[in-house]
Design goal:
The structure holds two protein chains of two kinds.
Chain A (H helix, E strand, L loop, with lengths): L1 H32 E2 L2 E2 L1 H8 L8 H35 L6 H4 L1 H14 L4 H25 L5 H24 L3 H11 L8 H20 L1 H7 L3 H6 L4 H23 L5 H13 L3 H25 L8 H21 L1
Antiparallel strand pairs in A: 1-2
Helix pairs in contact in A: 1-3, 1-14, 2-3, 3-9, 3-12, 3-13, 3-14, 5-6, 5-7, 5-12, 6-7, 6-12, 9-12, 13-14, 13-15, 14-15
Chain B lengths: L2 H19 L3 E5 L5 E5 L5 E3 L2 H9 L6 E3 L24 H6 L4 E5 L5 H9 L4 E4 L4 H14 L3 H22 L7 E5 L5 E2 L6 H8 L3 E2 L9 E2 L1 H7 L3 E6 L4 H11 L5 H4 L3 E5 H5 L5 H12 L5
Parallel strand pairs in B: 3-4, 3-5, 5-6, 7-9, 7-11, 11-12
Antiparallel strand pairs in B: 1-2, 8-10
Helix pairs in contact in B: 5-6, 6-12
Classes of the chains: A mainly alpha, B alpha/beta.
Chain lengths: ~325, ~300
């Protein structure tokens, strides 16, 4: 009986992952074939399959400009949705998300200081961002710990910390020189256009182990859904699970925030959507969030490049414009 | 020296020599200290700043330009050229698609990351860094030599030099050095510090820059400006008309300032004064008219 359910979980996970992987790959292909110089699916297909002139301008554009960008979008989308999923499970609060809790804001402060100091995106800016996010996490935890990590006090202190972070960000912007202002403002709105191949590669080396660590904790996360006492009575070391997953998640968030800026709602919309469709099992939800979140952000980035304007619009604008109404709709639906 | 290093050295020398002998290209050091491979006569050039576009047109080499920034608006002929985005955030994909032989960037305006990314994509980027009138003329000469237009560049800078000397001569006859408040932003009020073109132009035109100091673009409160008692207020703006009238009316409420009493509040086209091009001389002559009207 036990073996049978386990087998069906594995089967279901594999099937869903396969479907989402195909979705991610097709969205990535669309992302590779679209850009400011136009859309050419057939030419991109020839280039990707290795035929065609590898020294042509189109080949450079596809491999060295669009490819790192699509991969970065997929990594960032995966990280943010996974981050949201972990926070929602640990805090047992549907509103928990790095952006709302102020973790993103904290890492943004670190990152802006890094940009102002002229450090490189990875690892200089990323390390400062990590410092900022750990600091805000510590503040939120200590503020809400007196009431033993209660749901509401956690979100409330998070909202307050976030507001405080915003004021510091505003302060930093007001003292910024003109030449750096544009970079910072664009970065705050969430921007993937500065991606380059080396940085994206290094980022993926940092992120993929984090994904694996979180997947290892899938089962304890499932048990935590039933409450901390229940989980610890079933042999889960709640403290260890919380500390490890929160630290790993904050690390991933800061690493991505330093590259992509602040992208709201990805960590809220994707986990909720998938939970509604797939149910609460984290063994299934973790890989689905990675693949689905990746596909979602690649799609948003595609739209950011597609909507005609002077240059392109920052992808953070797109994720928020789609994310906020979609989240309201999901909430309404799940209440019924 | 390790054998590896010697081999590399020889290879580099060989590469440079073969390229030079064939007349294909040469390695030059640009104004930011980077080594750049420059083709002998670049036929397709992308300009990453309005000032560079203006200089290239002033040298009558506009036909080499294959792409310019959104902000490039002078001379009018530039309107038909393809745009590559803003100079702070150019569209790298568009630049690559234009297959330029050479991009010319400015150290001050274009972020270092943009230069690095283009170089990583094997596009030659020559960075210029004009900081004052003298280096603007040097920059014009350098761009001239990049584009095989040395003679035109020499004539252009010679004319600039003689017009600047003429201004200096006439200003030396002036009896006073009026205090100038140069306003580049309206909300908040922003002026220009010592380390700017405009400071140099104001001083050369026989005025005192009331905002001089280490901060490049210092902010002021209205109170501070009134205390400075400017003899001349110059407002630099890209839009004339209504906005200017409003700012002017705002200043006119403070009758204690000499600039208000003597009706010496002016507006100028910001492009003439803050772009490091040959047009700076026009801006200089205009400033003399504002600061020392008696010299005309």
């Amino acid at each position: 009986m036990m073996d049978k359910t386990k087998l069906s979980v594995v089967k279901r996970t594999l099937a869903v992952s396969l479907f989402l992987a195909i979705l991610l790959l097709s969205v990535c292909f669309l992302g590779l074939s679209t850009g400011s110089t136009g859309q050419n699916i057939r030419e991109v297909f020839t280039i990707l399959s290795g035929y065609g002139d590898q020294n042509s301008a189109m080949s450079t554009i596809v491999w060295q400009i669009r490819f790192p960008r699509v991969i970065l979008a997929a990594l960032v989308g995966a990280t943010l949705s996974l981050g949201g999923l972990v926070f929602q499970a640990l805090l047992r609060n549907p509103l928990a998300e790095p952006y709302i809790l102020g973790i993103s804001g904290g890492s943004a402060i670190g990152a802006i200081i890094g940009i102002l100091l002229g450090l490189s995106r990875f690892s200089g800016v990323a390390l400062l961002a990590f410092g900022g996010s750990m600091l805000t996490l510590a503040i939120i935890l200590s503020l809400s710990s007196k009431s033993a990590m209660k749901k509401d006090s956690m979100i409330l202190s998070g909202v307050m910390v976030n507001a405080f972070c915003s004021s510091i960000i505003m302060f930093l912007i007001s003292i910024t020189r003109e030449s750096e202002l544009h970079t910072i403002v664009f970065w705050l709105m969430g921007d993937l256009s500065t991606s380059d191949a080396h940085q994206t590669l290094r980022l993926s080396f940092a992120l993929i182990p984090c994904f694996i660590v979180i997947f290892i904790f899938a089962k304890p996360l499932n048990l935590l859904l039933m409450g901390e006492e229940m989980a610890s009575s079933m042999g889960v070391n709640v403290r260890l699970v919380s500390v490890v997953t929160l630290t790993v998640t904050s690390f991933m968030i800061s690493a991505t925030v330093s590259h992509s800026g602040l992208l709201g709602f990805v960590g809220l919309v994707i986990p909720h959507l998938l939970r509604i469709i797939l149910g609460p099992d984290h063994r299934l939800l973790i890989p689905s969030c990675i693949l689905g979140g990746g596909a979602y952000l690649v799609l948003c980035d595609l739209m950011a490049r597609f909507i005609p304007s002077q240059g392109e619009i920052p992808v953070g604008v797109v994720t928020a414009m789609i994310g906020a109404p979609l989240f309201i709709y999901l909430m309404q639906r799940s209440k019924r | 020296m390790k054998p590896n290093k010697i081999i590399y050295l020889f290879l580099t020398l060989f590469l440079i020599l073969t390229l030079e002998m064939n007349g294909f290209a040469s390695v030059l050091v640009d104004q930011s200290g980077r080594e750049v491979l420059i083709p002998d006569s670049p036929a397709s050039v992308v300009s990453l700043a309005p000032s560079i576009t203006e200089i290239i047109f002033a040298l009558h080499e506009g036909s080499r330009l294959k792409g310019v920034t959104q902000h490039c608006d002078f001379p009018p002929a530039v309107k038909s050229l393809p745009r590559i985005g803003s100079y702070v955030q150019p569209d790298i994909e568009k630049i690559v698609a234009l297959k330029p032989d050479l991009c010319i960037a400015t150290k001050d305006g274009n972020p270092q990351e943009v230069v690095d990314r283009l170089s990583a994509l094997n596009i030659s980027v020559y960075v210029v860094n004009p900081r004052n009138l003298n280096t603007v003329m040097e920059t014009i000469l350098e761009i001239g030599s990049l584009l095989n237009a040395d003679e035109k560049a020499r004539l252009l800078t010679k004319e600039m030099r003689s017009r600047i000397d003429k201004v200096k001569l006439s200003v030396s006859r002036a009896s006073s050095r009026p205090g100038v408040f140069f306003q580049i932003g309206t909300t908040p009020i922003v002026s220009v510090g010592t380390n700017t073109f405009i400071h140099e132009l104001i001083t050369t035109a026989g005025g005192r820059n009331l905002a001089e100091g280490n901060s490049k673009y210092p902010r002021f409160s209205r109170e501070q400006v009134i205390t400075l008692k400017p003899d001349v207020i110059i407002i630099s703006s890209m839009t004339r008309g209504e906005v200017f009238e409003k700012v002017k009316a705002e200043w006119n409420r403070w009758g204690s300032m000499p600039a208000v009493v003597n009706k010496r509040i002016f507006i100028v086209d910001s492009n003439i004064l803050d772009r490091p091009t040959s047009r700076l001389v026009e801006g200089l002559e205009m400033l003399v008219g504002f600061i020392h009207p008696e010299l005309k």
